[in-house]
Write a structure and sequence with these properties.
Helix content: 25-40%
CATH topology of the largest domain: Rossmann fold
Strand order of the largest sheet: 6-7-8-3-9-10
Oligomer: single chain
Strand content: 15-25%
Bound molecules: adenosine-5'-triphosphate, magnesium ion
Largest sheet: 6 strands, mixed
Shape: globular
Structural class: alpha/beta
Number of helices: 7
CATH architecture of the largest domain: 3-Layer(aba) Sandwich
CATH superfamily of the largest domain: P-loop containing nucleotide triphosphate hydrolases
Number of strands: 10
Distance between the termini: 48 Å
Order of helices and strands: EEEHEEEHHHEHEHEEH
C-alpha cells in the first residue's frame, strides 16, 4: 500500500464565492501501479494531482498519506510533469537532466553518467547539447521524463503530458512510457481526458464526475502490454468507458450553456 486518499475534498475560496472542486475522493494506489484518471474539463483532475504533489492543501478532514505518512507539502519523492513542461531554457538538454541531481548534492562524478543513462532511455543522447527551444514538443516531454526519473522519485504524477502533441508523436511516447514503466516499475498517476490514452496506459482507469469531482466508477484494465491505441480490445474497452464519461461531459456542456 503506497498512496492513500480518504475523504479528500477541496474548496477554493474565490472572489465569486467558494468553488467546490473535489468531494470525498477515496482511493488507494499500490507501489508500482499505473493509475489513470479521466474526467471532463474542470472536474478537478489537476487539483487531485496538485494535492498529491503537496502543492494544494485539501479541506480539513481530508487525509492524504504515502506509506503511512501524511503529505504535508511537496517532496522529492513525488514529481509532477505538466502538459507543457517547465524545462530550463538557459540550460542545454543534459544540464536540464542533471539539475535535480546537482540540487540533491549527488556525488559529482556520478552525475554525468546517470544523466546520460536516462537520456539514452528516452532516446535523446544525440541531443544532449541542444537547447530547449531547438527541440520539438515530443522531445521536450522526453527530456522532462528523463529529468523526473533521474532523481529516482517514488511516484510520477503526470498531468495531460501528451495532450499538446500530434497523434504520431503521442503514440510513440505512449509506447516509450510503457517500456520505461515496465523497466523501472514506478508508481504513476496519469491524468488525461483521452479515454484511449488512459486505457492504453493504466492498470486501472478512474472516471471522475463533472464538478465537483467525485469518483464515478473504476475500471480494471487487464489487456496485455504493450498496448497500442488502435488495438481492437483497447478500442472496445474505451467505448465501454465512454458511456460513463459522456454523461459527465454532457453535464458540463449543459451547465456552461445555461439557458442560451
Ligand atoms: N487556484 C484556483 N482557484 C480557484 N479555483 C480553482 C483553482 N484551481 C482550480 N480551480 C477550480 O477547480 C475546478 C477544478 O479545476 P482543475 O484544474 O482541477 O480541473 P481539471 O479537471 O484539471 O480541468 P482541465 O481538464 O481543463 O485541465 C474548476 O472549477 C476550477 O475552476
Ligand atoms: Mg487540468
Amino acid at each position: 500500500m503506497e498512496l492513500v486518499l480518504r475523504n479528500v475534498s477541496k474548496t477554493f475560496r474565490t472572489a465569486n464565492g467558494p468553488i467546490k472542486a473535489l468531494e470525498d475522493i477515496d482511493f488507494q494506489v499500490d507501489t508500482g501501479e499505473f493509475v489513470c484518471f479521466i474526467g471532463p474539463s474542470g472536474c478537478g483532475k489537476s487539483t487531485v494531482l496538485n494535492i498529491i504533489a503537496g502543492l494544494e492543501k485539501p479541506d480539513p478532514h481530508s487525509t492524504v498519506s504515502i506509506d503511512g505518512s501524511p503529505v504535508e507539502g511537496p517532496g522529492p519523492d513525488r514529481i509532477l510533469i505538466f502538459q507543457q513542461d517547465a524545462l530550463f531554457p538557459w540550460l542545454n538538454v543534459i544540464n536540464n537532466v542533471e539539475f535535480g541531481l546537482k540540487m540533491k548534492k549527488f556525488p559529482n562524478e556520478k552525475v554525468r553518467p546517470l544523466a546520460e543513462e536516462f537520456l539514452r532511455m528516452v532516446h535523446l543522447s544525440r541531443f544532449r547539447n541542444s537547447y530547449i527551444h531547438e527541440l520539438s514538443g515530443g522531445m521536450r516531454q522526453r527530456v522532462a521524463l528523463a529529468r523526473a526519473l533521474v532523481v529516482n522519485p517514488k511516484m510520477l504524477l503526470m498531468d495531460e503530458p501528451f495532450s499538446s502533441l500530434d497523434a504520431q508523436t503521442r503514440e510513440r511516447l505512449l509506447m516509450l512510457l510503457q517500456t520505461i514503466w515496465s523497466i523501472i516499475g514506478k508508481t504513476i498517476i496519469f491524468v488525461t481526458h483521452n479515454i484511449r490514452e488512459a486505457v492504453c496506459l493504466g492498470d486501472r482507469v478512474i472516471v471522475l464526475t463533472a464538478s465537483p469531482g467525485r469518483i464515478k466508477r473504476e475500471f480494471r484494465i487487464d489487456l496485455p502490454r504493450p498496448r497500442r491505441l488502435g488495438d481492437g480490445r483497447l478500442v472496445e474497452t474505451s467505448n465501454l468507458i465512454m458511456g460513463d464519461l459522456k454523461e459527465e461531459i454532457d453535464k458540463v456542456v449543459r451547465e456552461e450553456m445555461g439557458d442560451d
